[in-house]
Automatic annotation (TrEMBL):
Its main location: nucleus. It holds the Pfam family Fibrillarin. This is rRNA 2'-O-methyltransferase fibrillarin. The gene is NOP1. Keywords: Methyltransferase, Nucleus, Ribonucleoprotein, RNA-binding, rRNA processing, S-adenosyl-L-methionine, Transferase. Belongs to the methyltransferase superfamily. Fibrillarin family.
Length: 160
C-alpha cells in the first residue's frame, strides 16, 4: 500500500486498523471498509467522519454484489474476516474489484477456520484455497509471539 492506492478492506471492525491504512494511502487514496456487524459499523462510520478517504460499508463481505455500486476497482484487498469461508470471501471480492496483478493480504486466524486442526495445517489449506481463487501467495508470516495461531499471507491476484 502506497500513497494513492485504492484498498478494499474486508472485516473493518470499528476501523482502528482501517485508519492506519487510510494514513498510508493518504488523501489521494481510498479505503473501502466493509464490516458486517452493525455495532462495529456504527463506530466505523464515526471514524470515517474524520477521514475523508474512508468509505464505510456496513454489509456482508460474502455478498459483494450488494456494494458493487460503491466500490471501484482496487489495487489491494486486505482481509481480516476471521470466517471459515474467508478464502472464498476474498476470491468473490477479488474477482469483482481487484485489478489484475493487484495485491492481496489475508489475516488467517486458525481457530476461526478449524479449531480441531493444527494451525500449520489450517494455514496450508487456506493458502491452497487462495491459489484456487487465482491468488498466488508470495509470503507467509506467523504472528507469534504477538498473536497465537495467526498468520498473514500476502499474494498477487491473477485473473487468468
Amino acid at each position: 500500500m502506497r500513497p494513492g492506492s485504492k484498498v478494499l478492506y474486508l472485516g473493518a471492525a470499528s476501523g482502528t486498523s482501517v485508519s492506519h491504512v487510510a494514513d498510508l494511502v493518504g488523501p489521494t487514496g481510498t479505503v473501502y471498509a466493509v464490516e458486517f456487524s452493525h455495532r462495529s459499523g456504527r463506530d466505523l462510520i464515526g471514524m470515517a467522519t474524520h477521514r475523508t478517504n474512508v468509505i464505510p460499508i456496513v454489509e456482508d463481505a460474502r455478498h459483494p454484489l450488494r456494494y458493487r455500486m460503491l466500490v471501484g476497482m482496487v489495487d489491494v484487498i486486505f482481509a481480516d474476516v476471521a470466517q471459515p469461508d474467508q478464502a472464498r470471501i476474498v476470491g468473490l471480492n477479488a474477482h469483482l474489484f481487484l485489478k489484475a496483478g493487484g495485491a492481496v493480504i489475508v489475516s488467517i486466524k486458525a481457530n476461526c477456520i478449524d479449531s480441531t486442526a493444527k494451525p500449520e495445517v489450517v494455514f496450508a489449506r487456506e493458502v491452497q484455497k487462495m491459489r484456487e481463487e487465482k491468488i498466488k501467495p508470495k509470503e507467509q508470516l506467523t504472528l507469534e509471539p504477538f498473536e497465537r495461531d495467526h498468520c498473514i499471507v500476502a499474494g498477487i491476484y491473477r485473473q487468468t
